Amino acid sequence: MKQEKRHKYYDFSLFFVIIFLLCFGLIMLYSASSATASLNYGDSTYYLKSQIKSTIIGLVAMIVVSFVDYKIYKRLAEVAYIASAVVVLLIYSPLGKGSHGATRWLRLGGFTIQPVELVKIGVIVVVAALVSKTYKQANKLRYIVVIMGVVLPLVALVAVVTSNMSSALIVLIIAGIMVFVASPKYLQFVAIIASGFAALLLVILVTGNYWLKRIQTWISSLSDISSGQYQIIQGIYAIASGGLFGKGLGQSIQKSFVPESHNDMIFSIICEELGIVGAFAVIFIYAFLLWRMMVIADNAEDMFGSFLVIGVMAQIGVQVMLNIAVVTNTIPATGISLPFISYGGSSVVTLLIEMGIVLSVSRSINAEVEKDEEKK
Fold this sequence. Notes:
The structure is a single chain. The protein is mainly alpha-helical. 66% of the residues lie in helices and 8% in strands. A hairpin with a 2-residue loop joins strand 2 and strand 3. The N and C termini lie close together (8 Å).
Protein backbone atom coordinates (compact mmCIF):
# COMPACT_ATOMS: atom_id res chain seq x y z
CA MET A 1 0.00 0.00 0.00
CA LYS A 2 1.32 3.42 -0.92
CA GLN A 3 0.69 6.48 1.17
CA GLU A 4 1.48 10.06 0.24
CA LYS A 5 2.88 12.48 2.77
CA ARG A 6 2.35 16.12 1.87
CA HIS A 7 5.06 18.34 3.32
CA LYS A 8 4.10 21.99 3.65
CA TYR A 9 6.54 24.63 2.48
CA TYR A 10 7.66 27.64 4.51
CA ASP A 11 9.78 30.25 2.78
CA PHE A 12 12.61 30.72 5.27
CA SER A 13 14.58 32.70 2.67
CA LEU A 14 11.83 35.31 2.68
CA PHE A 15 11.58 35.19 6.47
CA PHE A 16 15.30 35.82 6.98
CA VAL A 17 15.53 38.61 4.41
CA ILE A 18 12.68 40.35 6.26
CA ILE A 19 14.61 39.98 9.53
CA PHE A 20 17.76 41.33 7.84
CA LEU A 21 15.91 44.38 6.47
CA LEU A 22 14.40 45.08 9.89
CA CYS A 23 17.78 44.87 11.64
CA PHE A 24 19.45 46.98 8.97
CA GLY A 25 16.60 49.46 9.20
CA LEU A 26 17.00 49.81 12.97
CA ILE A 27 20.74 50.41 12.59
CA MET A 28 20.23 53.06 9.91
CA LEU A 29 17.36 54.61 11.85
CA TYR A 30 19.55 55.09 14.91
CA SER A 31 22.35 56.51 12.80
CA ALA A 32 20.01 58.93 10.99
CA SER A 33 17.93 59.99 14.00
CA SER A 34 20.32 60.07 16.95
CA ALA A 35 21.28 63.74 16.55
CA THR A 36 17.70 64.93 16.05
CA ALA A 37 16.38 62.76 18.89
CA SER A 38 19.06 64.04 21.26
CA LEU A 39 18.29 67.64 20.34
CA ASN A 40 14.49 67.36 20.53
CA TYR A 41 14.02 64.80 23.31
CA GLY A 42 17.34 64.64 25.16
CA ASP A 43 17.60 60.96 24.27
CA SER A 44 19.53 59.82 21.20
CA THR A 45 17.66 56.49 21.20
CA TYR A 46 14.14 57.99 21.33
CA TYR A 47 13.15 57.05 17.76
CA LEU A 48 15.03 53.76 17.94
CA LYS A 49 13.21 52.58 21.07
CA SER A 50 9.85 53.51 19.58
CA GLN A 51 10.63 51.63 16.36
CA ILE A 52 11.87 48.57 18.24
CA LYS A 53 8.55 48.34 20.10
CA SER A 54 6.61 48.55 16.83
CA THR A 55 8.93 46.01 15.20
CA ILE A 56 8.42 43.49 18.00
CA ILE A 57 4.64 43.91 17.79
CA GLY A 58 4.83 43.53 14.01
CA LEU A 59 7.00 40.40 14.19
CA VAL A 60 4.62 38.73 16.64
CA ALA A 61 1.70 39.65 14.39
CA MET A 62 3.56 38.35 11.31
CA ILE A 63 4.29 34.97 12.88
CA VAL A 64 0.70 34.58 14.12
CA VAL A 65 -0.79 35.62 10.76
CA SER A 66 1.57 33.29 8.88
CA PHE A 67 -0.10 30.31 10.58
CA VAL A 68 -3.63 31.52 9.85
CA ASP A 69 -5.20 30.04 6.70
CA TYR A 70 -5.17 32.91 4.20
CA LYS A 71 -8.36 31.61 2.53
CA ILE A 72 -10.40 33.06 5.38
CA TYR A 73 -9.68 36.57 4.06
CA LYS A 74 -11.61 35.84 0.87
CA ARG A 75 -14.79 35.40 2.93
CA LEU A 76 -14.00 38.65 4.75
CA ALA A 77 -13.41 40.76 1.62
CA GLU A 78 -16.64 42.75 2.02
CA VAL A 79 -15.86 43.35 5.69
CA ALA A 80 -12.35 44.51 4.73
CA TYR A 81 -13.82 46.98 2.24
CA ILE A 82 -16.25 48.49 4.73
CA ALA A 83 -13.62 48.52 7.49
CA SER A 84 -11.19 50.36 5.19
CA ALA A 85 -13.75 53.12 4.60
CA VAL A 86 -14.70 53.35 8.27
CA VAL A 87 -11.12 53.57 9.52
CA VAL A 88 -10.45 56.52 7.19
CA LEU A 89 -13.64 58.31 8.27
CA LEU A 90 -12.61 57.90 11.91
CA ILE A 91 -10.12 60.68 11.25
CA TYR A 92 -13.10 63.05 11.62
CA SER A 93 -13.79 61.61 15.08
CA PRO A 94 -12.08 62.59 18.37
CA LEU A 95 -9.61 59.81 17.61
CA GLY A 96 -8.13 61.85 14.76
CA LYS A 97 -4.67 63.25 15.35
CA GLY A 98 -3.00 66.05 13.45
CA SER A 99 0.69 66.46 12.65
CA HIS A 100 2.68 68.66 10.26
CA GLY A 101 -0.49 70.59 9.38
CA ALA A 102 -2.57 67.54 8.39
CA THR A 103 -4.83 65.09 10.21
CA ARG A 104 -3.84 61.64 8.95
CA TRP A 105 -3.51 59.56 12.09
CA LEU A 106 -5.69 57.88 14.72
CA ARG A 107 -4.94 57.66 18.43
CA LEU A 108 -5.81 54.24 19.84
CA GLY A 109 -4.67 53.90 23.42
CA GLY A 110 -0.95 54.56 23.50
CA PHE A 111 -0.54 53.88 19.79
CA THR A 112 -0.82 56.07 16.71
CA ILE A 113 -2.09 54.44 13.52
CA GLN A 114 -2.11 55.80 9.98
CA PRO A 115 -5.43 54.58 8.46
CA VAL A 116 -4.10 54.51 4.90
CA GLU A 117 -1.76 51.64 5.87
CA LEU A 118 -4.81 49.56 6.81
CA VAL A 119 -6.55 50.63 3.60
CA LYS A 120 -3.67 49.14 1.59
CA ILE A 121 -4.26 45.74 3.21
CA GLY A 122 -8.00 46.06 2.65
CA VAL A 123 -7.61 46.91 -1.04
CA ILE A 124 -5.21 44.01 -1.60
CA VAL A 125 -7.70 41.56 -0.04
CA VAL A 126 -10.69 43.03 -1.92
CA VAL A 127 -9.02 43.08 -5.35
CA ALA A 128 -7.55 39.58 -4.86
CA ALA A 129 -11.04 38.30 -4.00
CA LEU A 130 -12.63 40.02 -7.01
CA VAL A 131 -9.92 38.80 -9.40
CA SER A 132 -10.21 35.20 -8.19
CA LYS A 133 -14.00 35.27 -8.58
CA THR A 134 -14.14 36.91 -12.01
CA TYR A 135 -10.91 35.68 -13.61
CA LYS A 136 -12.70 34.11 -16.59
CA GLN A 137 -13.91 37.58 -17.62
CA ALA A 138 -10.40 39.05 -17.41
CA ASN A 139 -10.26 39.65 -21.17
CA LYS A 140 -13.18 42.09 -21.05
CA LEU A 141 -12.80 45.82 -20.50
CA ARG A 142 -15.88 45.69 -18.28
CA TYR A 143 -13.91 43.48 -15.89
CA ILE A 144 -11.30 46.19 -15.36
CA VAL A 145 -13.87 48.96 -15.06
CA VAL A 146 -15.88 47.07 -12.43
CA ILE A 147 -12.88 46.25 -10.22
CA MET A 148 -11.36 49.71 -10.48
CA GLY A 149 -14.82 51.15 -9.88
CA VAL A 150 -14.90 49.32 -6.56
CA VAL A 151 -11.47 50.65 -5.58
CA LEU A 152 -11.88 54.28 -6.67
CA PRO A 153 -14.26 55.30 -3.83
CA LEU A 154 -11.63 54.22 -1.30
CA VAL A 155 -8.93 56.08 -3.23
CA ALA A 156 -11.07 59.23 -3.30
CA LEU A 157 -11.84 58.85 0.40
CA VAL A 158 -8.15 58.66 1.27
CA ALA A 159 -7.34 61.66 -0.94
CA VAL A 160 -10.15 63.86 0.42
CA VAL A 161 -10.19 62.90 4.10
CA THR A 162 -6.44 62.67 4.68
CA SER A 163 -5.38 65.22 2.03
CA ASN A 164 -2.71 62.67 1.14
CA MET A 165 -2.62 62.38 -2.64
CA SER A 166 0.57 60.29 -2.69
CA SER A 167 -0.92 57.56 -0.47
CA ALA A 168 -4.15 57.59 -2.49
CA LEU A 169 -2.08 57.21 -5.67
CA ILE A 170 -0.18 54.23 -4.19
CA VAL A 171 -3.48 52.51 -3.30
CA LEU A 172 -4.68 53.08 -6.89
CA ILE A 173 -1.42 51.77 -8.38
CA ILE A 174 -1.55 48.62 -6.21
CA ALA A 175 -5.03 47.82 -7.51
CA GLY A 176 -4.02 48.72 -11.07
CA ILE A 177 -1.01 46.39 -11.04
CA MET A 178 -3.07 43.50 -9.67
CA VAL A 179 -5.70 43.92 -12.41
CA PHE A 180 -2.99 44.40 -15.03
CA VAL A 181 -1.40 41.06 -14.10
CA ALA A 182 -4.81 39.34 -14.23
CA SER A 183 -5.84 40.71 -17.63
CA PRO A 184 -4.41 39.11 -20.79
CA LYS A 185 -5.27 42.15 -22.94
CA TYR A 186 -2.68 44.79 -22.14
CA LEU A 187 -3.65 47.30 -24.86
CA GLN A 188 -6.88 48.18 -23.09
CA PHE A 189 -4.78 49.52 -20.23
CA VAL A 190 -3.53 52.32 -22.47
CA ALA A 191 -6.98 53.91 -22.33
CA ILE A 192 -7.20 53.30 -18.58
CA ILE A 193 -3.77 54.86 -17.91
CA ALA A 194 -4.57 57.84 -20.14
CA SER A 195 -7.84 58.33 -18.27
CA GLY A 196 -5.96 58.08 -14.98
CA PHE A 197 -3.51 60.81 -15.97
CA ALA A 198 -6.38 62.99 -17.15
CA ALA A 199 -8.16 62.48 -13.83
CA LEU A 200 -4.95 63.29 -11.94
CA LEU A 201 -4.51 66.50 -13.95
CA LEU A 202 -8.11 67.44 -13.20
CA VAL A 203 -7.55 66.87 -9.48
CA ILE A 204 -4.44 69.07 -9.58
CA LEU A 205 -6.35 71.86 -11.29
CA VAL A 206 -9.39 71.58 -9.00
CA THR A 207 -7.37 71.50 -5.77
CA GLY A 208 -5.84 74.84 -6.65
CA ASN A 209 -2.31 76.06 -6.17
CA TYR A 210 -1.00 73.39 -3.76
CA TRP A 211 -0.09 70.71 -6.30
CA LEU A 212 0.83 73.21 -8.98
CA LYS A 213 3.29 74.84 -6.58
CA ARG A 214 4.73 71.43 -5.71
CA ILE A 215 5.33 70.67 -9.38
CA GLN A 216 6.80 74.14 -9.95
CA THR A 217 9.09 73.59 -6.96
CA TRP A 218 10.27 70.30 -8.46
CA ILE A 219 10.99 71.92 -11.82
CA SER A 220 12.84 74.83 -10.22
CA SER A 221 16.60 74.91 -10.00
CA LEU A 222 18.23 72.89 -7.23
CA SER A 223 20.55 75.79 -6.60
CA ASP A 224 17.67 77.97 -5.41
CA ILE A 225 17.09 77.13 -1.73
CA SER A 226 14.30 79.69 -1.53
CA SER A 227 12.36 77.66 -4.12
CA GLY A 228 11.28 75.19 -1.44
CA GLN A 229 13.78 72.54 -2.49
CA TYR A 230 15.77 72.73 0.75
CA GLN A 231 15.02 69.14 1.78
CA ILE A 232 15.90 67.74 -1.63
CA ILE A 233 19.04 69.89 -1.91
CA GLN A 234 20.35 68.59 1.42
CA GLY A 235 19.48 65.04 0.38
CA ILE A 236 21.38 65.42 -2.89
CA TYR A 237 24.36 66.77 -0.93
CA ALA A 238 24.23 63.67 1.25
CA ILE A 239 24.14 61.33 -1.75
CA ALA A 240 26.96 63.16 -3.52
CA SER A 241 29.21 63.34 -0.46
CA GLY A 242 28.93 59.59 0.11
CA GLY A 243 30.85 58.78 -3.02
CA LEU A 244 31.41 55.16 -3.98
CA PHE A 245 31.88 53.52 -0.58
CA GLY A 246 30.50 56.15 1.81
CA LYS A 247 31.82 57.91 4.88
CA GLY A 248 31.19 54.96 7.15
CA LEU A 249 28.29 53.88 9.34
CA GLY A 250 27.28 56.66 11.74
CA GLN A 251 29.54 59.22 10.06
CA SER A 252 26.87 61.19 8.21
CA ILE A 253 27.12 64.97 8.46
CA GLN A 254 23.99 65.75 6.47
CA LYS A 255 21.66 63.90 8.88
CA SER A 256 21.62 67.08 10.96
CA PHE A 257 20.49 69.13 7.95
CA VAL A 258 18.18 66.83 5.98
CA PRO A 259 14.58 67.23 7.21
CA GLU A 260 12.96 63.84 7.99
CA SER A 261 16.36 62.16 7.63
CA HIS A 262 15.11 59.20 9.69
CA ASN A 263 11.87 58.94 7.75
CA ASP A 264 11.18 59.69 4.06
CA MET A 265 14.77 60.79 3.35
CA ILE A 266 16.63 57.94 5.05
CA PHE A 267 17.85 56.59 1.70
CA SER A 268 20.00 59.73 1.29
CA ILE A 269 21.71 58.95 4.60
CA ILE A 270 22.26 55.35 3.48
CA CYS A 271 24.00 56.73 0.37
CA GLU A 272 26.13 59.13 2.44
CA GLU A 273 27.28 56.54 4.97
CA LEU A 274 27.48 53.42 2.79
CA GLY A 275 28.05 55.01 -0.61
CA ILE A 276 26.63 54.07 -3.97
CA VAL A 277 27.77 50.47 -3.39
CA GLY A 278 25.76 50.27 -0.18
CA ALA A 279 22.73 51.87 -1.86
CA PHE A 280 22.79 49.31 -4.66
CA ALA A 281 23.19 46.53 -2.08
CA VAL A 282 19.97 47.72 -0.39
CA ILE A 283 18.19 47.80 -3.76
CA PHE A 284 19.46 44.26 -4.44
CA ILE A 285 18.01 43.07 -1.11
CA TYR A 286 14.64 44.54 -2.02
CA ALA A 287 14.90 42.81 -5.42
CA PHE A 288 15.61 39.50 -3.67
CA LEU A 289 12.59 40.06 -1.41
CA LEU A 290 10.35 40.69 -4.42
CA TRP A 291 11.78 37.65 -6.23
CA ARG A 292 10.95 35.37 -3.28
CA MET A 293 7.41 36.72 -3.27
CA MET A 294 7.17 36.18 -7.03
CA VAL A 295 8.13 32.52 -6.53
CA ILE A 296 5.40 32.16 -3.89
CA ALA A 297 2.81 33.87 -6.12
CA ASP A 298 3.74 31.62 -9.04
CA ASN A 299 3.37 28.44 -6.97
CA ALA A 300 0.43 29.42 -4.76
CA GLU A 301 -2.32 26.86 -4.28
CA ASP A 302 -5.07 29.06 -5.74
CA MET A 303 -5.69 32.30 -7.61
CA PHE A 304 -6.69 34.21 -4.46
CA GLY A 305 -3.44 33.39 -2.68
CA SER A 306 -1.41 34.26 -5.75
CA PHE A 307 -2.98 37.71 -6.06
CA LEU A 308 -2.66 38.43 -2.35
CA VAL A 309 1.09 38.06 -2.82
CA ILE A 310 1.06 40.09 -6.04
CA GLY A 311 -0.69 42.90 -4.18
CA VAL A 312 1.95 42.96 -1.43
CA MET A 313 4.69 42.82 -4.08
CA ALA A 314 3.12 45.79 -5.84
CA GLN A 315 2.97 47.84 -2.66
CA ILE A 316 6.56 47.22 -1.61
CA GLY A 317 7.95 47.61 -5.13
CA VAL A 318 6.07 50.86 -5.78
CA GLN A 319 7.01 52.38 -2.42
CA VAL A 320 10.69 51.54 -2.86
CA MET A 321 10.80 53.02 -6.37
CA LEU A 322 8.86 56.16 -5.45
CA ASN A 323 10.88 56.77 -2.28
CA ILE A 324 14.18 56.54 -4.16
CA ALA A 325 12.75 58.66 -6.99
CA VAL A 326 11.78 61.41 -4.52
CA VAL A 327 15.14 61.35 -2.74
CA THR A 328 17.00 61.62 -6.06
CA ASN A 329 14.60 64.37 -7.26
CA THR A 330 13.36 62.23 -10.15
CA ILE A 331 9.75 63.06 -9.21
CA PRO A 332 8.20 65.87 -7.11
CA ALA A 333 8.77 65.57 -3.37
CA THR A 334 6.07 63.74 -1.42
CA GLY A 335 5.94 61.72 1.77
CA ILE A 336 6.59 58.06 0.91
CA SER A 337 8.42 55.83 3.38
CA LEU A 338 11.08 53.24 2.54
CA PRO A 339 9.60 49.84 3.56
CA PHE A 340 11.08 48.25 6.72
CA ILE A 341 13.70 50.99 7.04
CA SER A 342 11.99 54.38 7.46
CA TYR A 343 10.70 55.39 10.87
CA GLY A 344 7.00 54.69 11.36
CA GLY A 345 5.28 52.32 13.75
CA SER A 346 2.02 51.75 11.87
CA SER A 347 3.92 51.29 8.60
CA VAL A 348 6.24 48.57 9.90
CA VAL A 349 3.43 46.75 11.76
CA THR A 350 1.11 46.66 8.73
CA LEU A 351 3.97 45.66 6.42
CA LEU A 352 4.83 42.75 8.70
CA ILE A 353 1.17 41.69 8.84
CA GLU A 354 1.21 41.66 5.03
CA MET A 355 4.38 39.56 5.08
CA GLY A 356 2.60 37.19 7.46
CA ILE A 357 -0.12 36.78 4.83
CA VAL A 358 2.56 36.09 2.19
CA LEU A 359 4.17 33.46 4.42
CA SER A 360 0.72 31.95 5.02
CA VAL A 361 0.31 31.60 1.25
CA SER A 362 3.77 30.01 1.06
CA ARG A 363 2.64 27.33 3.53
CA SER A 364 0.02 26.18 1.02
CA ILE A 365 2.74 25.14 -1.41
CA ASN A 366 3.62 21.46 -1.52
CA ALA A 367 7.39 21.29 -1.16
CA GLU A 368 7.59 17.62 -2.03
CA VAL A 369 5.56 14.45 -2.10
CA GLU A 370 7.11 11.41 -0.55
CA LYS A 371 5.73 7.96 -1.18
CA ASP A 372 6.19 5.49 1.65
CA GLU A 373 5.49 1.88 1.34
CA GLU A 374 3.65 0.12 4.12
CA LYS A 375 3.95 -3.60 4.64
CA LYS A 376 0.79 -5.48 5.36
